[in-house]
Specification:
The chain has 9 helices and no strands. By secondary structure, it is an all-alpha fold. Helix 2 packs antiparallel against helix 4. The radius of gyration is 22 Å and the shape is globular. The two termini are 43 Å apart. About 4% of the residues have low confidence.
Length: 255
């Protein structure tokens, strides 16, 4: 389809879908061939999805070599592009990069939707199959819930598109709702860890609403940097928490 279609938007959508489907095919094939638990596949997909969502702009944007012709004077002695220096160099206009930008934007939008779906659906699988009677699985699930909720709540602050902000915050609400519904039957007076997860989520919500209140200045800067640090920390913690929530530790012990 990529060969037969000339429209840049469709090419971007097809390339993003092809890359994601190929990775899912490899992960699913490895899980079936090794007779692994479905939780391991869900944890692997979730960890890969959150990393890809964080690095999505760097993944989908590939600057063609011809974009460097506007820096011919600077690149005379530092030319690293394949081929020789172009004879005619000029500043690129919006018309020159229009098709490439359409491809990038379509690829980014498709990748964002797919990564967000592959973030929520594997978490739903972990919610359904998580063994709360095992300590490591329960702790990993609670940490995973808190990290996902913080990431999906704080990450939209850096996005300029309302669609992305609404989708990520809606996904954060879905994550917390699924966790509360699944863990409600396991909550006792001695096991109230879910309230700690809710408290961590409340910190993220307060940061989101407190940052716009500060009209510039030092307090706004501190809150913004705290939000960035929590967002990055939650993204780094999620793969480790998914490892424990998926029961990978028990699988390694059984080898």
């Amino acid at each position: 389809m990529t060969v037969c279609i000339d429209q840049p938007v469709l090419n971007g959508v097809i390339s993003a879908c092809f890359a994601v489907s190929l990775l899912l095919l490899l992960a699913s094939t490895g899980t079936l061939m090794c007779s692994l638990d479905v939780r391991l596949l869900a944890g692997l997909v979730l960890a890969a999805a959150i990393c890809c969502l964080q690095m999505l702009p760097n993944i989908v944007v590939h600057v063609p070599d011809r974009y460097l012709v506007q820096w011919r004077a600077y690149m005379t002695r530092r030319w690293t592009v394949r081929g020789g220096i172009p004879e005619e160099a000029r500043v690129l206009t919006q018309v020159d990069i229009r098709e490439d930008m359409q491809t990038f934007q379509a690829r980014y939008a498709t990748g964002f939707v797919l990564c967000l779906a592959l973030l929520v659906l594997p978490y739903a699988a972990l919610v359904a199959f998580c063994d709360f009677h095992r300590m490591y699985d329960a702790v990993g699930f609670l940490v995973l819930t808190a990290a996902l909720f913080l990431f999906l709540t704080l990450k939209p602050r850096r996005s300029g598109r309302p669609f992305e902000r609404y989708c990520m915050r809606l996904s954060a609400v879905m994550v917390m709702a699924m966790a509360c519904v699944r863990a409600w039957g396991f909550m006792t007076t001695e096991n109230m860890s879910l309230f700690g997860v809710c408290a961590i989520g409340l910190i993220g919500v307060l940061l989101v609403y407190a940052i716009p209140v500060q009209k510039g200045g030092f307090h706004s800067l501190v809150l913004s940097r705290a939000g960035d640090a929590l967002c990055f920390l939650s993204m780094m913690v999620t793969p480790v928490a998914a490892f424990f929530a998926a029961g990978a530790l028990q699988y390694i012990r059984g080898l």
